[in-house]
Amino acid sequence: MKGYMGKILFIDLTSRACWERALPDSMPAALIGGKGFGIKLLYDLLPPGTDPLDPANPLIFVSGPLTGTLAPSMRGCLVSKAPLNGMFDDSYFGGHFIQEVKYAGYDAIVVTGKACSPVYLVISDDHVEYRDAAHLWGLDTYETCDSVKAELGDATFRVCCIGPAGENLVKFALVDFEPHRQAGRGGLGAVFGSKNLKAVAVRGDKGIEVAHRESFIEAVSQAHKQLAESGDTQEFAKYSSVSLLPFSNEFGFLPVRNFQDGSTSQAESMNAAAHESRVWMRHWACAGCPIHCGKMGMIKRGPYAGAICDNVEYESVGLIGGNLAVSSVEAMAFINQTCDKLGLDTISTGGVVGFAIEAFERGLLDETSSGGLKLSFGDHRSILKLIHQIAHREGLGGLLADGVVEGAERLGKGAPDFACAIQGLETPAWGPRGSAGMGLAYVTGDRGGCHQRGFPIGYETSGSWPKGEMADGWHLEGKGELVSWEQNLLAALYSLTICEFGRSGVSYDTYRSMLAAATGLSLSEEEFLLVGERIWNLIRLFNLREGWTQDQARVPQRFKEALPSGVMKGHAFTDEDIAALLEQYNTARGWDDSGRPLARTLTRLGVDALMEPLFEGK
Amino acid sequence: MVVTVKIHGTLKDAAVHPSDRMELADGATVSDLLIAVGLGSRVPALIIADGRAVRPGDRLANGAQVSIFARVSGG
């Protein structure tokens, strides 16, 4: 089918074998690509119950049918079983890497096994080469990328790699994709590390054919027009995602001091205008994206002066800035860059460090247990030292490197009450108090409590959604239908590997038009949503198979306490709320009371047929 | 009557009168306020008055605290 390359590359690091497999004919119409292909491959290839750090856990780089074409603002998808919480994980990344995967001739690359010593992979069209990476082990992500590119002597290669955190199997280690883009959530960098895989470089010369050239150009032009005319896009272009800060701060959704509060008086000094005037110097963009939300800059004053850095996204401003009470944009930018270089997810890092500081303030940790560190909110110097400890599993870092849930359980003494994670994933920069929809999205998220698997806050605060009026955030009614609908929609869009920021401008109709023109797959709105629902159900089956139960759909005590400030002041997210919301949600989905899809639901969605294995390990 | 206004993001750049305090005729609507601050031709993503979402035709109360946001999508 046009739009696809028609092949999947398999690489086994243990035997150093590699082989190709034709893309099964049934997959594009049933699953589209991206997230859909990722779950199908993971479901088939992962032996049930496999530990995420076992060599048998596959790393799956997967594209969509529009990736690498003229369609704007497309990303790549990295899929595996997450070290952090043992769930399905699909982590999306920008940059230029995934486009080269397609130009090399593949819709997906699957890496299994474990090399006997550190290696990096070089994929050039049909040729796969293993190179020794012993000399790269220990380097940070920036140094690794530069070294690999220098050794290859060919600037057309695109590189992804891990830093020390991935090598040390930190469970929230990221994979860095040049330049300055990351597959951040769930700890997929640790899967790299567990395989002794330091980096992957890829390039290719193949073109991508589309089914209907003229209508494709027309649909792409429409997408560009919508991006150019979108107020949201203009906001991203000028101020990046950090422009969300005033909104979250006013409502009380912002994490402040380990989610002890939801608003801060320091927001003005942390906002986009402060970053723009004090750090940013120029815009940059991922492949084929007119938005250019990336900002390169330089820290010009203070102890970190001279550091060249990119922008701090809203989530990182929330978790490093608000959650750690670091209000200096320079310190924030430097901490953000340090995490990127060490290979640590900034959301989880901000979560575990905020937890550690509160534990220190409560006397659960002291200078002896912290390796001499005196931790306090706002002290960026001690925060930086702790982040280095985490990446190297040294000192207190050993307690925190397995995530806030495991760290809190090991610490005991009531610590789990303020360990802010839902389904094992450290909570993003949108507290659930005052947004029942967001809370429901967190407790039902397919990779854990994630803001990118449903963002009902926008519908709740505006009072409307595409099917009519929507109740205020603190009301429960209608939220089951809202969240399941948005999860289905996002699953369908992520099968195209869209960028979240691109979809703020491009309409869903235009995405479907581009898909139809590129591939010949003409899906109605209903059929498109059905693909998303099918994918969501298949992922639920995978998570159940791997041990997930609805008991994990709970929140820490911190979120059950009333929010102290902001528009949502006084609201909490309680066990009673969760029980009522899950009842709505499971009914809307056609699942039983324990969150297990009913047989008739699986039949309606055609999931039964997808359970038959298409892939097996060699 | 007097309302307090906070304009955020690129809308602040576009506003002709990005003042924190605006005097409006009694019974003024959200739409009147948008025109007064020079945002009559822009469609904000969200307008909040005293903690609740409001629409252009809604009347504002004397002393209302209004926030105008350009974007509220996730990220």
Tell me about this structure:
- The complex is a heterodimer of chains A (618) and B (75).
- By secondary structure, chain A is an alpha+beta fold.
- In chain A, 40% of the residues lie in helices and 13% in strands.
- Chain A contains 26 helices and 19 strands.
- In chain A, the strands form 5 sheets. Chain A has a 6-stranded mixed sheet. A 6-stranded mixed sheet of chain A has the order 8-7-12-9-10-11. A 3-stranded antiparallel sheet of chain A has the order 13-14-15.
- In chain A, a hairpin with a 6-residue loop joins strand 4 and strand 5.
- In chain A, helix 12 runs parallel beside helix 14.
- Chain A is globular and about 60 Å long.
- The mean pLDDT of chain A is 96.
- In chain B, strands 2-1-5-3-4 form a 5-stranded mixed sheet.
- Chain B has a single domain, classed as Beta-grasp domain (Ubiquitin-like (UB roll)), CATH 3.10.20.30.
- Chain B has helices spanning 10-14, 30-36; strands spanning 2-7, 21-23, 46-49, 52-53, 65-69.
- Chain B is 16% helix and 27% strand.
- By secondary structure, chain B is an alpha+beta fold.
- The longest helix of chain B is centred in the middle third of the chain and has 7 residues, at 30-36.
- Chains A and B meet through helix 8, helix 9 and helix 19 of A and strand 4 of B.
